[in-house]
C-alpha cells in the first residue's frame, strides 16, 4: 500500500502530493524514475506484503449487514399474497407495509452519520443489527397490520444505518489497492441477500422467511466481537493506543505501520483544527465539490429507474406480453450476483470512472431496447418480438447496472469526504438515495400508465446524463489513499470555485 507523508493534507502543501496536480503521465529522467521507484519499494514493501487476513475477516463481518439489507429489501415481493391472505390486509395496507422500509431507512440515513461518529463504526453496526432483529421478530409475531408495520419500520431504520456505515467502515480499514474491490462486496451481498430472500420466499412461508432474516443480523453481532474498530475513527476521537493496536491487527504484526500511522495521525490532527461542521457548511467552496459528487452520483443512480424496474419486474414482463413474469423475475434475481461479482473484480483494475460510464451506457441500451419493445406493442408492430425484446432489455439493464451503477457510487461516497465531514455529508448522501428510491418506486406505475415506452426512454435519457456527469465532475479515486483523494479534490475545487 503506497503511503506518502503529509504536512498539511487539507491545503495540499506536502511535496508528496504535488504529483496529484500534475498530469498522470510525465516524462522524467531515468535517474529520477529509478530513485522514486526505489524509495517507493523501500518504504511500502512491508505494507504491501502484510497480512490481509484480518481485513478480509472484518469485511466479511461488515457485509453480513449488507446481506441483511438485501433480505429486507427482497422480503415483500415473494410474501405479498400470503401476508394479505393470512392477515386480511387490503392492497393499501400492504402498500403501506412495503413503503415503510424506505421511510425507516430515511430516518436511519438522517441519524447514521452522527451515530457513527459518536459511537464508532462497530457501535453503529450493533445498533442497526438490534433494530433489524427487533423488526424481524415483530413481523414474525404479527397478528395484524400494526405490529407488521412497526417491524417493517424498524428493519428499514436498521438498513438505513447499514447503508451508510458498511461502505465507510470497509473504506477506512482496507489498503488502497484493495479498497474498491472490498467496498464492492457491500453491493454484492445486498444483491445476494435480495436474491436469496426472493428464492426462499417461494419455498417457505412469510413468518419463516422473517426468522431467516435474523441469521445475518445475529452473525453480524457475533462477528463484531472479533474485528477491530476503524483505525481512522479511533485516531479521530483521540484513542491513540487503540488506534495503533487496530492498525497493527489489520496490517499484520510483522508489518511496519509507521508510515501509514503517521499519515493518518497528521491528517486527523489537521482536521481537528477545523471548526465543527454543520449542514450548511457542506456548501462552502472547500466541501461543495465533494457534496456535488456524492449527491450527484446517488441522484444518477436512482434516476436511472433501478427501484421502479426492480420492484415491478414481474408486472413489466406481463405488460410486455409474457403469460407470467415469474421466470423473468427469477432470471433477474440470479443475474445480479455474477455481474456484481464481476464489478468487484474490475473495480480496482479498470478504475471507478470507466466502470460507471460503461455501466451507464449499458443501462441506456437496456432501457432503450425495452422502450422500443413497448413502442412496438403500442403500435401493434412485430408483436411476436415484443416479449423477447422486453426481457432482453431488462436483463441487459440489470446486468450492466450491477457492474457499476449499483456499487460504484457507494464506493466513491465512502472515499471522497474528509473524516470530519464524513458523518453529516454521508447522512445527506444516504438520505438523498432513499428519497430517490421512494420517488422512483412510487412514480413507476404512474409513469407506466402514462406511457410504457416513454418511461423507459426517460430512464435511458437519465443514463446518458449520468455519463456526462461522471465525465465532467467525478475524479478517479483508484489507487489513492483517502488522504490523497482529499488533496486531489481540494486542488480541483480551488480551480473550479
Describe the structure in your own words.
With 497 residues, this protein is mainly α. The protein has two domains: 44-227, MFS general substrate transporter like domains (Growth Hormone, Chain: A); 275-497, Up-down Bundle (Growth Hormone, Chain: A). It contains 21 helices and no strands. It has helices spanning 30-48, 53-73, 76-87, 91-140, 145-173, 176-201, 206-212, 214-223, 231-236, 240-251, 258-272, 285-303, 306-311, 313-319, 326-350, 352-378, 386-405, 408-416, 422-450, 452-473, 482-496. The protein is globular and about 70 Å long. It is a multi-pass membrane protein. It is found in: Membrane. This is Major facilitator superfamily (MFS) profile domain-containing protein. GO terms for molecular function: sugar transmembrane transporter activity.
Secondary-structure map:
Elements: H1 30-48, H2 53-73, H3 76-87, H4 91-140, H5 145-173, H6 176-201, H7 206-212, H8 214-223, H9 231-236, H10 240-251, H11 258-272, H12 285-303, H13 306-311, H14 313-319, H15 326-350, H16 352-378, H17 386-405, H18 408-416, H19 422-450, H20 452-473, H21 482-496
Helix pairs in contact: 2-4, 2-5, 2-6, 2-8, 3-4, 4-5, 4-7, 4-8, 4-19, 5-6, 5-18, 6-15, 12-18, 12-19, 12-20, 12-21, 15-16, 15-17, 16-17, 16-20, 19-20
Amino acid at each position: 500500500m503506497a503511503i506518502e507523508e503529509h504536512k498539511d493534507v487539507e491545503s495540499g502543501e506536502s511535496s508528496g502530493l504535488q504529483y496529484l496536480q500534475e498530469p498522470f503521465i510525465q516524462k522524467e529522467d531515468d535517474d529520477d524514475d529509478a530513485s522514486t521507484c526505489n524509495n517507493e519499494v523501500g518504504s511500502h514493501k512491508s505494507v504491501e506484503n502484510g497480512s490481509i487476513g484480518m481485513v478480509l475477516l472484518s469485511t466479511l463481518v461488515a457485509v453480513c449487514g449488507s446481506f441483511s439489507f438485501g433480505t429486507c429489501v427482497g422480503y415483500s415481493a415473494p410474501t405479498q399474497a400470503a401476508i394479505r391472505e393470512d392477515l386480511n390486509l387490503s392492497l393499501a395496507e400492504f402498500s403501506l407495509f412495503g413503503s415503510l422500509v424506505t421511510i425507516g431507512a430515511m430516518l436511519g440515513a438522517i441519524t447514521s452519520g452522527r451515530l457513527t461518529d459518536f459511537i464508532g463504526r462497530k457501535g453503529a453496526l450493533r445498533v442497526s443489527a438490534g433494530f433489524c432483529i427487533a423488526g424481524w421478530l415483530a413481523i414474525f409475531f404479527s397478528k395484524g397490520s400494526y405490529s407488521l408495520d412497526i417491524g417493517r419500520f424498524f428493519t428499514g431504520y436498521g438498513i438505513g444505518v447499514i447503508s451508510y456505515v458498511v461502505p465507510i467502515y470497509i473504506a477506512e480499514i482496507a489498503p488502497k489497492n484493495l479498497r474498491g474491490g472490498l467496498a464492492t462486496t457491500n453491493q454484492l451481498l445486498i444483491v445476494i441477500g435480495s436474491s436469496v430472500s426472493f428464492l426462499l420466499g417461494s419455498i417457505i412461508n412469510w413468518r419463516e422467511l422473517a426468522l431467516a432474516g435474523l441469521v445475518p443480523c445475529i452473525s453480524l453481532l457475533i462477528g463484531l466481537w472479533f474485528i477491530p474498530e476503524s483505525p481512522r475513527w479511533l485516531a479521530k476521537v483521540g484513542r491513540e493506543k487503540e488506534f495503533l493496536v487496530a492498525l497493527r491487527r489489520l496490517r499484520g504484526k510483522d508489518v511496519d505501520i509507521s508510515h501509514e500511522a503517521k499519515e493518518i495521525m497528521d491528517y486527523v490532527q489537521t482536521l481537528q483544527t477545523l471548526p465543527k461542521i454543520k449542514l450548511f457548511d457542506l456548501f462552502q467552496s472547500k466541501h461543495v465539490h465533494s457534496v456535488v459528487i456524492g449527491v450527484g452520483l446517488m441522484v444518477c443512480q436512482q434516476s436511472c429507474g433501478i427501484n421502479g424496474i426492480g420492484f415491478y419486474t414481474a408486472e413489466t414482463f406481463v405488460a410486455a406480453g409474457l403469460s407470467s413474469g415469474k421466470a423473468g423475475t427469477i432470471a433477474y434475481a440470479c443475474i445480479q450476483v455474477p455481474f456484481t461479482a464481476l464489478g468487484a473484480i474490475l473495480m480496482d483494475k479498470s478504475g471507478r470512472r470507466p466502470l460507471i460510464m460503461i455501466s451507464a451506457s449499458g443501462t441506456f441500451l437496456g432501457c432503450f431496447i425495452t422502450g422500443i419493445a413497448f413502442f412496438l406493442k403500442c403500435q401493434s408492430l412485430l408483436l411476436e418480438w415484443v416479449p423477447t425484446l422486453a426481457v432482453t432489455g431488462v436483463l441487459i439493464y440489470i446486468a450492466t447496472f450491477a457492474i457499476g451503477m449499483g456499487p460504484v457510487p457507494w464506493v466513491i461516497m465512502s472515499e471522497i469526504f474528509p473524516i470530519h465531514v464524513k458523518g453529516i455529508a454521508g447522512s445527506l448522501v444516504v438520505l438523498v438515495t432513499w428519497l430517490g428510491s421512494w420517488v422512483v418506486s412510487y412514480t413507476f406505475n404512474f409513469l407506466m400508465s402514462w406511457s410504457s415506452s416513454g418511461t423507459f426512454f426517460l430512464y435511458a435519457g437519465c443514463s446518458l446524463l449520468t455519463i456526462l456527469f461522471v465525465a465532467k465532475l467525478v475524479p478517479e479515486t483508484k489507487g489513492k489513499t483517502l488522504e490523497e483523494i482529499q488533496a486531489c479534490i481540494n486542488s480541483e475545487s480551488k480551480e473550479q470555485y
